[in-house]
Specification:
The protein is an alpha/beta fold. The chain folds into 4 domains: 95 residues, OB fold (Dihydrolipoamide Acetyltransferase, E2P); 155 residues, Rossmann fold (3-Layer(aba) Sandwich), CATH 3.40.50.261; 35 residues; 61 residues, no CATH class. It has a 5-stranded mixed β-barrel with strand order 1-2-3-5-4. Helix 4 runs parallel beside helix 8 and helix 5 runs parallel beside helix 6. It is rod-shaped, with a radius of gyration of 62 Å. Belongs to the XseA family. Its EC number is 3.1.11.6. This is Exodeoxyribonuclease 7 large subunit.
Length: 433
């Protein structure tokens, strides 16, 4: 498309829109829109630029970030916009105070005359490869189960001795001591100092951890540091330290950095505290709260006991008001007549039974006497039996000269047989014993 510039008419001022900003004058000023278009055309020629600085403002609105970058050597600032799609590709731990490098493209909004930069990439300075390795290590340790909640140990309710690993004369040490002693004045600390950054950080922290873990009186261990940028916190993501914490038998509390810091130590520790102050508050109970809780429990117990006693007393009074307990002798009186009748009836039954059985016994006795050999003998009969006990029923059983025992009604005597005698005869030789 061919563009035609307006033709200036002699003696007349050209239209404002037709005046290029560099050709403008007091008599022939350019328009605001033409000036903004010129500025935008000039800025668009810059393309993408890599810039280094410190984040001084980070505001998240509607999924987009609006912030500022400050030059490290001066007070110069630029404003930037980081759209949501780009934000998803940037590190999730970016925050105010971070030293970053960003790929930006200048934008000039003609309508508002607003100048800003759109970020297409942003990362920590010098941490690109380290952060990538850190994330791979995080995924590996998670796959091994070192971050599983099931393996984390419970902290004691009231530790007698707290092991503290921190930098010497650090604010973190003071914060932990001050807040713990405010909550429980009798708390006792065993402190091991270690470098909290640099090359000595990992070996000294591991040595302090092993020493405190071996101490029998240490109930919980706090590893504390007062925050810092990701570069200074890399020691607390070292694999050697993370595995040492996982292998410790004493519960370990991680109190590294602030809320936005997330070293690997936070994931493997039995408890993660956002700050050293938070660690002291979560490890040691508040004596005032515990006293209030004890008083509350005592009051609740007294109320329950009072209600229980009142209930039991009311139940007892209700039982005592019943006729059976108000006059217990009435139960005996009402039953005494029935008891007397039952006893009399039983006595009659027993008497009749005894009388019947007495008559029956007399009858049996009479029958027994009638059938008894003694009664027959008493009437004058006798029984003769040989010396071997055989009863003589036939005279032939006692031949002449045989010894015979004769039993009569009263006693017995011996006799000698003279043999058979004639029927009706009386010859016999008898010798009484």
């Amino acid at each position: 498309m061919t563009h035609f510039e307006p033709v200036a008419v002699p003696g007349q001022s050209p239209p404002a829109d037709s005046v290029h900003p560099r050709d403008s004058s007091q008599q022939s000023p350019t328009s605001v829109s033409r000036l903004n278009e010129t500025i935008r055309g000039f800025i668009e020629k810059w393309g993408f630029v890599w810039v280094e600085g410190e984040i001084t403002s980070w505001n998240l609105r509607g999924g987009n970030v609006f912030g500022r970058l400050k030059d490290l050597g001066s007070d110069s600032l630029i404003s930037f916009r980081l759209w949501s799609k780009t934000l998803q590709r940037t590190p999730g731990d970016l925050k105010v105070g971070d030293h970053v490098v960003a790929c930006v493209k200048a934008d000039y909004f003609v309508k508002q005359g607003d100048f800003s930069f759109t970020v297409s990439a942003m990362r920590h300075i010098g941490l690109g490869d380290q952060l990538e390795r850190l994330e791979r290590l995080r995924a590996q340790l998670r796959a091994e189960g070192l971050f599983d909640p099931s393996r984390k140990k419970r902290l004691p309710f009231l530790p007698h001795t707290i092991g503290l690993i921190t930098g010497e004369n650090s604010d973190a040490e003071k914060d932990v001591h001050r807040n713990a002693e405010l909550r429980w004045p009798q708390v006792r600390f065993v402190t091991k100092y270690a470098a909290v950054q640099g090359e000595r950080c990992v070996p000294e922290t591991i040595a302090a951890l092993k020493a405190l873990d071996a101490a029998p009186d240490v109930d919980v261990i706090i590893i504390a540091r007062g925050g810092g940028d990701p570069q200074t916190l890399l020691g607390f993501s070292d694999e050697r330290l993370v595995r040492a914490v996982a292998a410790a038998s004493t519960p370990v509390v991680s109190a590294i950095g602030h809320e936005n810091d997330r070293p690997l130590l936070d994931d493997v520790a039995d408890l993660r505290a956002s700050t050293p102050t938070d660690a002291a508050k979560r490890v040691v109970p508040d004596v005032a709260e515990q006293r209030a809780l004890v008083a509350q429990l005592r009051a609740r117990l007294a109320t329950r006991l009072t209600h229980r006693l009142q209930h039991d007393i009311a139940q007892l009074e209700q039982l005592r008001s019943r006729p059976a307990l108000r006059a217990p002798e009435s139960m005996l009186e009402s039953r005494s007549h029935q008891l007397w009748l039952q006893v009399a009836r039983g006595r009659d039954v027993v008497d009749r039974r005894l009388e019947t059985q007495s008559r029956r016994a007399a009858e049996l006795r009479a029958t027994l006497r009638a059938l008894s050999p003694a009664s027959t003998l008493a009437r004058g009969y006798a029984i003769a039996h040989l010396t071997d006990g055989v009863i003589v029923r036939d005279a032939s059983q006692a031949p002449s000269g045989a010894s015979v025992v004769v039993t009569v009604g009263r006693g017995s005597f011996a006799a000698h047989s003279d043999g058979e005698i004639a029927e009706g005869g009386t010859d016999a030789s008898v010798a009484e014993r």
